[in-house]
Design goal:
Layout lengths: L1 H10 L4 E5 L9 E7 L2 E3 L2 E2 L3 E8 L5 E6 L2 E6 L5 E4 L4 E7 L3 E9 L1 H10 L12 E2 L4 H15 L5 H20 L2 H4 L12 H13 L7 H7 L4 H12 L3 H19 L4 H7 L5 H12 L3 H8 L4
Helix pairs in contact: 3-4, 7-8, 10-11
Amino acid sequence: MNSLHEHGLQKFPDAGLLASSRGRGWAGLAAELRAHPAGEIPDICSSKTEITFAVRGTRDGTVARRGNGDFQVTPSRSGTIWLCPKGVEEDEIRITEAIPEVLHVYIPDEQINALSSLASRPVAFDESLYQAGLEDEFVRQICFRILAELREETAGGGMLMEHLASVLLTHICGRYTDHHATASRIGSPVGALDQRRLRRVREYIEDNLETDLTVTEIAAVACLSRHHFARAFRAATGESPNGYIGACRINRALSLLSTSDMPLAEIAFACRFSSQAAFARAFRRQLGQSPGEYRRENFCRR
């Protein structure tokens, strides 16, 4: 479980560590209680699936975060729950007020693989699980029990944590992934988004690239739930909604770089990247060169 704690240290270098399960011999999960100062958390690609729970939050503060292009702003009140699956690239996490106590629960890949092996089909903990502000009393109560064990170790704590990890993961799988929604459709393929809705969604994305688009918002345009829409969109296009939005923003940036004198920082803002640095990273990942290099090679004054 030490690798899980290393993830916490890497992701939250400035957050005070109040309690940790390191050395407890827990199986199935690891947990840390941290105090988060106001400010920004460094960009990171999450290496572990994480459940975050505000034990003692703030009255007026918020947490703004962006993962794989999905921008979320959530009040950091006591009881707030965030989910972040492994593999999500978070290029912005901003805390407006110090949060006194935050519980971080890390789930190892082995636990997810064990659940997947028992399910009727593989469990996909993908970017659709990147959610904030969950109203889920069941998860809250499990977090409170993990916290109690973290603060005062009991004789059967290790066994209890292994059981709670399984229960917690099974609940999240059934409620927040597409596994539950489609498990009963054995043998039937997941339908792709029809051309009429796909055209409407693409037009909406193109018209709103300068806003903080979310998958939930776009799913409403298609009159579908978030999970159903994400699944149907991928079936129709071969990529996730956030991946498609990111590509559209890069295409918008290409146009601005080749036809305008806008500074790179302004282009980054116009295309809704959190910073010029985040824009440059995304641009280089897709095109293999920096925005400045592309402009020098392709600028055409009109």
